[in-house]
Amino acid sequence: MKKISISCVLMMSLTIISFFGHAQDAKNFPSKPVHIIIGFAAGGGSDSTARVLVPKLQEMLGQTIIIDNKPGAGGNLASDYLMKLPPDGYNIALTTIGSLAINPHMPGGTNFNPLKDFTFLSQGVVFPNVLVVKADSPIKTLKDFVETGKKSGSFITFGSSGQGSTGHLAGELLKVRSGMNGQHVNYKGGGPAMNDLLGGNIVAIFASAPTAIPFIEAGRLRALATTGVKRADSLPNVPTIAEQGYPGYQAQNWYAFIGPAKIPPEIQNKLNQALVATLKDPSTAEKLRNIGVEPAPSTPNELAAYTKSEYETWGKIINTIQWEK
């Protein structure tokens, strides 16, 4: 009969204790406040979205939810911070398409791999950009916009809220899909881009729906198309780019809930169930739509697959861009 060493017995004991300890933690989760990390300053889109969700999410989890704003580097600082935290479910993030699908491909990259370094919890919300021109522009339709960009000697300029933003990349994707020429004009935010469009200094911008809608309703801008997979509830009469001859085109903004890698499945499931129930709550969903975003709950696997698809799509587009130095 083989002798079992003391060290072997100790290792087996520690493994058993650890197993039951983790099982007990998962059973009691959450037993203290849960933090939601936001990669942008208070008042921004992801912050506003998270604060709409907090009341119902607290009810679903039975614990206080604390918003932690950690702005910087387009959301990268928050994602890098999250990656290094314990995978116990008490620190999660509402992150953006930028951190998960765009920023890793940008010059300089990121310190994290979005497909490997996080636990996927649930999709959060989606919302489109809107391609707009001045109301008195001779460009009446998306077809006009593309054909103008194809004419010899034409110079179509389109602005966005910044280099590498979803508005910028929406324009680059349209250029690739349509074969048109166009020059992106980089602004430090949607406000300056809108001012230059209204002043006649650029031809068009890909603006966020919440930014563009007041000017559309006031008759100062004409919406040519939205960039989502379906028509925006807030702009039901504006067709998507996909509807207008470019099937499969989508360049929508999205936010998603993630945590550090290796959150135990039981805790991952509890968080997913609470997040999905919150996003599906009629009152909460209405409040989200009122700020211009559409709830889009999902399973963890659906979010993982969607993130991988977006990561690959935007990687290809970003590699075609001549970046400003």
Can you characterise this structure?
The chain has 325 residues and is of the alpha/beta class. The protein has two domains: 164 residues, Bordetella uptake gene, domain 1 (D-Maltodextrin-Binding Protein, domain 2), CATH 3.40.190.150; 116 residues, 3-Layer(aba) Sandwich (D-Maltodextrin-Binding Protein, domain 2), CATH 3.40.190. It has eleven helices and eleven strands. β6, α6 and β7 form a beta-alpha-beta unit. α2 packs across α9. The mean pLDDT is 89.
In short:
The chain is an alpha/beta fold. It has eleven helices and eleven strands.
Shape field = globular
Query: What is the distance, rounded to the nearest whole angstrom, between the alpha carbons of the first and last residues?
Result: 72 Å
Q: In the residues, how many domains can be counted?
A: 2
Largest sheet: 6 strands, mixed
- Calculate Rg over CA atoms: 23 Å
Order of helices and strands: HEHEHEHEEHEHEHEHEEHHEH
CATH superfamily of the largest domain: Bordetella uptake gene, domain 1
Helix fraction, binned, reads 40-55%
**CATH architecture grouping of the largest domain:** 3-Layer(aba) Sandwich
Main CATH class of the largest domain: Alpha Beta
Strand order of the largest sheet: 2-1-3-10-4-11
**Low-confidence spans:** none
Q: Examine the coordinates and then state which fold CATH places here, giving the name of the CATH topology of the largest domain.
A: D-Maltodextrin-Binding Protein, domain 2
Mean pLDDT metric: 89
Tally of extended strands? 11
Please work out how many helical segments DSSP would assign: 11
Q: What percentage of the residues does DSSP assign to strands (E)?
A: 15-25%
Structural class: alpha/beta
